[in-house]
Structure formats: C-alpha cells, structure tokens
C-alpha cells in the first residue's frame, strides 16, 4: 500500500475505528465465545492501476471492491456509470462463473454464495474491467 492509501481497522465491540497508517498497532483483549465479526478492514484511496482493452489506464480510484462477512460491495465512480455495458461477475478460484449482478448505481451490494470461500469479483464496463479477490467470511 502507498502512503496515500487509508486502511482502517474497525473494532465493532469497542466501537473504535483506527487508521492503521497513523497507528499501525492495536491491542485488544478477547474473551472466549466472542462474535466472529468483531473486526472489519476498510480501504480508501487504493492506487493500484490496470489497463483496459484499449490500453488506457483505469485506476481503482474509480472502482472499489470489498467484502465484509458474506456481503460484497462494489462502488464505482459516476463517470464509469455512463458506460453502456455494466456487469458484475463472481467467479470461484477454479474460474467458474457462480453469480452475476447488474451494475445500476454507484454502489451495488450482494451476498457471496458461500462462507469461508475466496472469490474473484470482476466489474466490466464497456471495454474496461477490474477484478479483486475477496473472501466471504
């Protein structure tokens, strides 16, 4: 991650959000039997770049894909929503298409098919695409 990327740790039990760029360590005490969804990671401003089919640079500042628990979220910029062909595809690690969704707004949320499974979410808009691995925990 670059210095401009913001990575946040959210402790849902203590109701605390920590910017890991500013505070890279967080100490907590856990009790037996606590809920499994105590922590969330949130990312802002990621700077990984890809190229579309026309070799034009597409930055992921325009596309954000993440999953919290079994809920996947895809956020796209308004500029990308102007494209005509917009589709979200979910693949398992064997490359099989397991789910598909329309991209009709800036934010699209959907449930991942299975728990504790890694998926590749691919967002296609016209001739451009972006993909990210996520885990449905």
Describe what this molecule looks like in 3D:
- With 137 residues, this protein is an all-beta fold.
- Helices cover 3% and strands 51% of the residues.
- It is built from 1 helix and 12 strands.
- Strands 9-8-11-12 form a 4-stranded antiparallel beta sheet, with no helix packed on it.
- A hairpin with a 4-residue loop joins strand 8 (86-92) and strand 9.
- Mean pLDDT is 80; it is low at 46-59.
* SS-derived structural category: mainly beta
Strand content: over 45%
Low-confidence stretches: 46-59
Secondary structure tally, helices:
1
Element-level helix/strand string: EEEEEEEHEEEEE
Comma- or semicolon-separated keywords:
137 residues, four-stranded antiparallel beta sheet, three-stranded antiparallel beta sheet, 3% helix, mainly beta
Short description:
With 137 residues, the chain is mostly beta strands. The chain has one helix at 78-81, and strands at 6-11, 16-19, 39-44, 49-51, 57-59, 63-68, 71-76, 86-92, 97-102, 107-111, 117-125, 128-136.
List the helices and strands and how they pair.
Blueprint: E1 6-11, E2 16-19, E3 39-44, E4 49-51, E5 57-59, E6 63-68, E7 71-76, H1 78-81, E8 86-92, E9 97-102, E10 107-111, E11 117-125, E12 128-136
Antiparallel strand pairs: 1-2, 1-3, 4-5, 6-7, 7-10, 8-9, 8-11, 11-12
């Amino acid at each position: 991650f670059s210095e401009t990327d913001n990575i946040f740790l959210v402790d849902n039990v203590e109701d605390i959000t920590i910017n890991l760029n500013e505070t890279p360590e967080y100490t907590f005490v856990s009790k037996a039997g606590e809920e499994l969804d105590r922590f969330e990671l949130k990312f802002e401003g990621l700077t990984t770049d890809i190229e579309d089919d026309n070799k034009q640079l597409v930055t992921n500042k325009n596309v954000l894909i993440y999953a919290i628990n079994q809920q996947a979220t895809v956020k796209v910029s308004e500029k990308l929503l102007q494209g005509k062909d917009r589709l979200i595809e979910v693949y398992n690690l064997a490359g099989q298409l397991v789910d598909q969704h329309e991209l009709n707004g800036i934010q699209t949320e959907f449930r991942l098919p299975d728990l504790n499974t890694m998926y590749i979410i691919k967002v296609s808009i016209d001739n451009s695409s972006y993909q990210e691995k996520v885990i449905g925990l």
